[in-house]
Amino acid sequence: MKILHVIYDDIDNPWVGGGGALRALEINKLLASEHQITMLTGKYPNALSGQVDNIEFVRAGSDRNYLLSRITFALSVPFRIRKFDFDLVVNEFSVFSPCFCHWYTTKHVINTFYHIIGVRALKKFFVLGILAYIFEILFLRTADNIITISPSVTDKISRNSTGKTIRCIYTGIDKNLFKTIPEDGGYIAYLGRIDPYMKGLDTLIKAFSRLKGKQMKLRIAGSGPSKNVDKVKSLVKEYGLEEEIVLEGRISDEEKMEFLRKARFLVMPSRFEGWGISAIEAAACAKPVIGTMIPGLQDAVLDGKTGLLVEADSDEQLSAVMAKLWDDKVLCNTLGEEGREWAKNFDWKTISEKQLAFYLEIIGKN
Question: Could you give all domains of the chain from N- to C-terminal order, each with its CATH number?
């Protein structure tokens, strides 16, 4: 089968490089042994086209800056898609670089949809947020074949849709994470994209400022556009936390294992999250996770079993729960042990097989 996978994100993209990119790459690497895979991704500085791991990478759009890269990628896809010979298009939908591939071709299209942003898009970027809000509504009304990665998002779409084929297929993790030996390095960890609003880093820093004097350290690992990094640095300075908060920047897979295994716990204060792969990675390292009660993340973190959940936007709740978990090492260890068992459910091979089965189901239906 010839598969064209359309996704703006890429694991080497310095502006994003998130869990969606990792999921697409890991699944495609496994499928590429028997199928012809082409990934059409956004362009970024020093991005190269060519074959890697039996996958053909083609870059589209501009690499001049993050915003222009996203816009030009979305605008170029309708024209680029006509140049490929394929049996199936897999389209990773994003409201900030929307590609309606089911409009651009008569071939089979399957869309991957991670999370519902809704009116929160207006709070992130007012003008662009209006467009993002409209794009999401258009997508959910017109796309027929959808893959989600969490039960809560699947349920939310299903309740408002009829005649669509929707399948929840989880995200996997690196098996080597289970080999790590947990250690308490004396810090709280954040691992993910540097996006103050979407990822709730503004809430996290404000919550952490309430705990000043408890001899706590917060280490933030991840990358993002320079303006987002500058915003986080500004918040750290505003709350006088330069000695307590360390920005690690982007870290390698090996560094990530060490980072997670030594953390006391991971915190994910997101306002929206498709699933939260970092939550499962931390669990595999036997570390509990503090997350928010939002679709996606509330599925990845089992409240009271593998971690603790708080309301999104509540720095007061987040602060109280961080203090509780920091002080209660017995609870920390218990949640971490349960988390490691939970994480064993997420294997890339099984997930790639389910993904392929859905591809064949859709092709067979039509």
Answer: 2-172+347-365 (3.40.50.2000), 175-343 (3.40.50.2000)
